[in-house]
Amino acid sequence: MHPKEYRKEKIGTGLMTQLQLQNSEIIVGVDFTNNKRVNEILTNEKGNSFLLYPGKDDFNLSTRDGSEINLFMGAHPTLFLLDGTWACARKMLKLSTNLQKLKRVSFDNTIKSKFIIKQQPEALCLSTIESVFTVINLLKERDLEQCDTEGFLLPFEKLIAYQLEYMLNPYSKNYRSTAKGTLSPKNRYRENPKRSFLFEQED
Question: Which of 37, 85, 108, 176 has the highest count of CB atoms within 10 angstroms of its CB?
Fold first, then answer.
């Protein structure tokens, strides 16, 4: 998790994910090359480590069956996620040479994020908790995971509902007047060709 996310986000989706998911942990930093805990996990002989991050040669979970995933990831895989803004996540990966060496996994997303109060580079980009929810369900469909995802997104959904209610309250300092009492997803990032590097192998 990026330090900015850790310090400023009192109820960030990374923290929500960690609270919802057993056998998970948060490691704070920017450059994890010499991070003791990260390297302990990477050198663990009991399982392989992977990075959930799109890339040129990533392993797409959505297009593979259970046997293919099991053969690729093994019995006890560890999945690293970069939690932060897209710009921060890219910087974390660029600086962390140990994470750059990991094989990447991804998935095909066909839904729009419910995180409409935050800007996303693209309409189909998901928050951390939505991404984890998607991955777990993909693994469950292939009988590779038994985690109960019922209500997994409930804290996230309640957060969004609360924040929308606050923003639409005329007595709130962040009040936003809208014709229909709703807000549109924030996916209006200005065009920037450098953003394509998010989906390519780092230099």
Answer: 85
Residue 41's H or E segment, with its range, is helix 36-42
The single-letter DSSP state of residue 34 is: T
DSSP string, 104-119: EEE----S--S-TTS-
CA-closest candidate to residue 92, choices 183, 84, 43: 84
Q: Which two tokens stand for residue 192?
A: 């920037």
- Segment 53-101, tens digit of pLDDT: 988 889 999 999 999 999 999 988 999 999 988 889 999 999 999 999 9
> Based on C-alpha coordinates, what's the Rg of the chain?
18
Closest alpha carbon to 120 in 134, 105, 109: 109
How far apart CA 149 and CA 140 sit, in angstroms, is 9
How many other CB atoms sit within 10 Å of the CB of residue 181? 8
Using the 8-state DSSP alphabet, how is residue 120 labeled? -
Assess contact for 91 and 137: CB atoms under 8 A. Answer: no
